Amino acid sequence: MPYELEIEVVIVDDGSDDNVWLDLKQLKGEMPSKRLKLIRLASNHGQGLATLCGIANSRGDFVITMDSDLQHPPEEIPVLVKHLKEGGFDLVYGTGTNGHQFMKRIARRILRIPGALMGVLYYQSTSFRMMTRPLGLQLVNSITSRILTIDDLFPGMVKKVGFVSVRHEKRKHGDSSYSYLDVALSLLEAWYLSKRQKEVAVKTGLALLLLSMISSHYAVELVGVSIAPILFFTAIVIMACGYMVDMRRREATLDNQISILEVVS
Questions:
Q1: Residues 164 and 186 in one domain
Q2: Residue 113 sits in the same domain as residue 82
Q3: Are strands 129-132 and 62-65 parallel, antiparallel or unpaired?
Q4: 178 shares a domain with 202
Q5: CB 3.0–4.6 Å: which of 149, 192, 194, 198 could bond 242 by disulfide?
Q6: DSSP for 182-209?
Q7: Residues 6+ apart with CB under 8 A from 234
Q8: The domain containing residue 205 runs over which residues?
Q9: What is the model's pLDDT at position 10?
Q10: Is residue 158 scored above 70 in pLDDT?
Q11: CA–CA gap between residue 238 and residue 206 (Å, rounded)
């Protein structure tokens, strides 16, 4: 059965260099009775932070994110709503292959391997997603730095994630600015921002400390140089970096990462 929903639309202008903001304000003036909120950022902050800004300024019990390139048909929103509500999910992705180039589909499949090992959801995600309000607030409160996509932040947060097939259209204007290198770096960034990085750093450091003790006992040398001190100092650096990254993650907020120039609501 269809769901009766009250809709709010939040549009974030991420530092556009054309007349997008003027067009948006004109659209707002033509629709005074609609719940349309416009946010203009002072400069380009990237899709990840811009999306988080939109989530932070929304008020609904659920949040749906969409790209502005018309690849995600609004007619598919009820599919996400039905899947999330009936499945009891925290997060649902609208997946599909239409509109994506063949090489991009191949790249996604390749990234499933390291993604699955690292516990990262990005390798099978899209920016057409629906989440619960509590999960959205968790994302906003967990930001540490400029990110490529909010999917980098999900590991450790999402208890139950779902995927549902929806229609994806081809881009109607322009080309994607993301390269395969961006995707690979985002995968590493996801691990960096996750809560597991301190645990991995500590375990790696302890393993190296153990190896340094063993190599010192047996006087192991490499090119005539004892490797024990090298392993010892490497272990200390790795563990220290793990704790520093964890502290940075705890102290950062969205407010000190973005600058909002204007809001029209």
A1: yes
A2: yes
A3: antiparallel
A4: no
A5: 198
A6: HHHHHHHHHHHHSTTHHHHHHHHHHHHH
A7: 208
A8: 197-251
A9: 95
A10: yes
A11: 10
Name the amino acid, one letter, at 81: V
Q: What is the pLDDT of residue 252?
A: 55
Q: Which residues contact 85 (CB under 8 A, 6 or more apart)?
A: 3
Q: Does one domain contain both 84 and 207?
A: no
d(CA 55, CA 42): 18
pTM, two decimals, is 0.67
Q: Let me know whether 116 and 209 are in one domain.
A: no
pLDDT at residue 168 tops 90: no
122 burial type by CB count under 10 A (0-12 exposed, 13-18 middle, 19+ buried): buried
**Residue 118 token pair:** 């690292």
Q: What share of the chain is helix, strand, coil (3-state, %, to 5)?
A: 50, 15, 35
Q: Do 76 and 206 share a structural domain? A: no
Structure tokens at 214: 């063993």
Q: Do 127 and 176 fall into the same domain?
A: yes
pLDDT of residue 118: 45
Q: Is residue 152 part of a domain?
A: yes
How far is 64 from 263, CA to CA, in rounded Å?
A: 20
For 62-103, what is each residue's pLDDT tens digit?
999 998 777 888 899 999 999 999 999 999 999 876 555 544
**Mean pLDDT, rounded, of the chain:** 78
Structure confidence at residue 78 (pLDDT): 92
| Total tally of structural domains belonging to the chain | 2
What is each CA distance from 119 to 115, 187, 213, 259, in whole angstroms?
6, 10, 32, 31
Residue 4 within any structural domain of the chain: no
